[in-house]
Structure formats: C-alpha cells, structure tokens
Amino acid sequence: MEHIISTPTAKAPTERFTGDVYLNPIEAPTEPARLAAALVRFTPGARTNWHSHANGQTLYITDGIGLVGTRNGHVVRVSAGQIVKCPAGEEHWHGGTDTTLMAHIAMVVGDADSDGTTWLEPVTDEQYTHALHSTKGS
Predict the structure, then answer these.
(1) What is d(CA 51, CA 118) in angstroms, rounded to the nearest whole number?
(2) Is the pTM of this model over 0.85?
(3) Which CATH architecture has domain 10-134?
(4) Lowest CB count within 10 Å: 3, 69, 76, 78, which one?
(5) Which of 37, 16, 21 is nearest to 101 (CA)?
C-alpha cells in the first residue's frame, strides 16, 4: 500500500488550456496499470483545447457547473456527481461556465509511454459562447 498525503497543484499549460486551470495528479500510467487520473479545476470561462483520447476518457464532476462539448456540436451542462464518458477518438473539450468554476477527476487509460491524449487547437470564444447559450436552462 502507498499512502499519499497530497500532490502539488500545478497551473495547467497554456498551450492546452484557455484561462486559469489547475491540476493535481492522482495517478500516472505505470506498468502494469495504465490509468492516468487528475483532479482538474477550471475557473469561470476556463476550458481545455479540443482533444481526443486513444482509449476514451471518463470525467467525474466533483464541484461546480461546467460544459462538455463534441465536434458534432453536442454540448452538455454538467454538475457535481455526474459522469461523462467520451469514447475513444472523439474530439471534445470541457471547462467551467462563464460564471461558475467546475472541477472534475479526469481518467484515461494510456500506456507506459503516454496517456494517449492528442491535443488540438483551442476552443474559440465563439464556440464557447455558442455552447453556453445552447445549454442555458439545462
């Protein structure tokens, strides 16, 4: 057994995120397990870039209200206790709303060399604003 008291909080890299996002690692893909997990906190308006995962991704929302969107325009408003599963290869993004923070535990299955994430371009302000308006009242 390994008991980890805490992990350091790091600011997320600006080349993969818009706005202020903070990460606390939970697990890195190490043999024989291949789980990568992190607690990710998004301030209002902050979000990931478009990205996909070779083996999919599971998001467990721990706090606040946020958005998860896909390339086909499907967007869901999420809140604490909800789970979103993004299938392998699906390009998507996630983040807080314009007025609320959102935190989630992000989980992916990678391999010994990487977590299998392919990072793409930023979500534009127009895409983000459209996502906000399309989920109002959800």
Answers:
(1) 5
(2) yes
(3) Sandwich (2.60)
(4) 3
(5) 21
> Distance (Å, rounded) from C-alpha 118 to C-alpha 36?
14
Contacts of 60 by beta carbon, 8 Å cutoff, 6+ apart = 82, 83, 104, 105, 107
Distance CA 26, CA 4 (A): 9
21-41 confidence digits (pLDDT tens): 999 999 887 777 789 999 999
pLDDT in tens, 36-75: 999 999 999 999 999 999 999 999 999 999 999 999 999 9
The separation between CA 97 and the C-alpha centre of its own chain, rounded to angstroms, equals: 13
In three-state form (DSSP H/G/I as H, E/B as E, the rest C), the secondary structure along 72-134 is CCCEEEEECCCEEEECCCCCEEEEECCCCCEEEEEEEECCCCCCCEEECCCCCHHHHHHHHHH
Paired tokens of 42: 């998004």
- Rounded Cα–Cα distance for residues 68 and 58 (Å): 12
